[in-house]
Every structure is written in C-alpha cells, then in structure tokens.
Write a structure and sequence with these properties.
Blueprint (H helix, E strand, L loop, with lengths): L10 E4 L2 E2 L6 E2 L13 E6 L7 E6 L4 E7 L2 E6 L4 E6 L4 E5 L4 E5 L6 E6 L8 E2 L2 H9 L4
Antiparallel strand pairs: 1-9, 2-3, 4-11, 5-10, 5-12, 6-9, 6-11, 7-8, 7-10
Bound molecules: thymidine-5'-diphosphate.
Length: 142
C-alpha cells in the first residue's frame, strides 16, 4: 500500500518576523521552517487580474510558497478533497507536499509569489491532465 499525500499534509507555516521602525524582516531556512532542502527558487509576478497559475501536480517536487507582496489563493486538491489557502502576509508560507493538484488564483495587483522547490526543474515531474492525476491518485502512484 502506498502513502498518499492529502490536503491535510499542506500546512501554513508562521515565519519569524522582526518588526522594526526601519522596516520589517522575515526569513525562511531549511529544516527549521521547511521539511526539505531547497534546490530551486522561482517567483510569479505581473499576473493579470483573473488569471490562474499552476493547474498541475508534481510527482516528486515539494514546494513552499510565500506571498512576498500582495495576496493570492492556492487551491490544493488530493483527488478527494480540495481546500483554498489564502496567502496575504509575507511572514506566512504554505508547504505543499508532492502528489497534490494545485492551482493559484485570485492574485491581487502587484502580487509576487515566491516558490521554494525541493527539486530542480523537470518537466517530466509534472502531471498536467486532471483526469490522469485522479487515476494516478486512485492507483496510489502519486
Ligand atoms: P509552469 O510551471 O508551467 O508555470 P505555472 O505552473 O505557474 O503555470 O512554468 C511556466 C514556464 O516556465 C514553463 O515553460 C516552464 C518554465 N519554468 C522553468 O523553466 N523553470 C522553472 O523552475 C519553472 C517553475 C518554470
């Protein structure tokens, strides 16, 4: 029997914040806040109103998403249940394990989503067809 990740394995993580009259500072580091070693960092920005990003699952890649600026919603789906996680503060991060369908929408003006990833970019790690995702999930392959 395989271990299937569920939406309950997605967690909002509170990051340290150093409030300062000169400007605030937050940080994130391996193992303390994120249960993987960061191999890649990318960011999504200049998202036109109403657009949706993501819309796929990863077979192996785990992610940690921070709304560095503005806000956005991340919808995670394990094939049985969905939940929407709203990110609107730069001192919260969302951990998403592998094997979940995820979409990002409801981006505010000037939103910047920073995404920390556990693997290098690999197009063959993507599942982009939702029905295929459901089948892989049902068969315990993702
Ligand atoms: P994609 O992952 O499809 O974006 P999203 O899931 O947000 O809709 O990536 C969009 C494009 O960027 C695609 O052509 C692949 C490229 N890309 C990289 O080259 N390296 C990366 O690390 C990422 C995340 C994307």
């Amino acid at each position: 029997m395989s271990f299937k990740m569920s939406i309950d394995d997605c967690k909002i993580v509170s990051l340290p914040k150093f409030l300062d009259a000169r400007g605030n500072l937050s940080f994130v580091q391996n193992t303390t806040h994120i249960p993987f070693s960061i191999k890649r960092v990318y960011w999504v920005y200049d998202v036109p109103g109403g657009e949706c990003r993501g819309g796929h699952a990863y077979i192996q890649n785990e992610e940690f998403i921070i709304a560095l600026s503005g806000s956005m919603d991340v919808v995670v789906d394990d094939g049985e249940q969905k939940k929407t996680c709203s990110l609107n503060r730069s001192y919260f991060g969302l951990y998403i394990p592998k094997g979940l369908w995820r979409e990002m929408n409801n981006f505010s003006t000037n939103a910047v989503a920073l995404e920390l990833a556990s693997t290098e970019y690999n197009p063959s790690d993507y599942v982009t067809n939702y029905n295929e995702f459901l089948k892989l999930k049902k068969d315990g392959k993702i």
